[in-house]
Amino acid sequence: MMSFLLSFSAGFALSASLIIAIGAQNLFVLRQGLKCQHVGAIVLFCAVSDAVLIIAGVNGMGALVSALPVLSMGFTLAGAAFLGWYGVQSLRRAVRHDSMSIVAGQGVSLRQALAAVAAFTWLNPHVYLDTVLLMGAAAMAQPPSARPVFAAGAVSASFLWFAALGYGARLLQPIFARPRAWQSLDVVMGGIMLMLSMSLLWSSFFHHCLTQE
Length: 213
What we know:
mainly alpha; 9 helices; 79% helix
């Protein structure tokens, strides 16, 4: 029983430490939670996606991803392009005061919201680094019989975090009743997305230079 709890806690703690960091996916979930739009679908999509990637990593997919640099490069470039585009859109909303329209109840459709969160999730190389490679490597340190328990702990942390972020965001709604607060959030989102995009492009360029030597 003690070994079960230790493996579960190890997976939970590692997953929580990786997923709580501010990133594009978390910011999008927060924004939709503040708007109270499609929260359940977005939370479920993010948590299930994390679960799929964590289980894949625990079962050795990390080695496959590492062995296919072309695939990794493709995800990196696609992710950088999407993050750059979304970052520009966020800054344009802030400059044009489009953020104010959110208070009036306008927003994206369920299909648009799921398409956006899918891109934030599956086109972000950092997601694969965290869930597939790092979680997979940590799972290898566990006894084979304990790896499913380790994965269960990691998946539980993911479900708990996204639910808390999506549904807990409404507690901040009094602050975001002011249009200026929405503009500030869009500026922060835009800045972070552009920095992430440039970071991905730089890492891709750096990796390409190393492979050419």
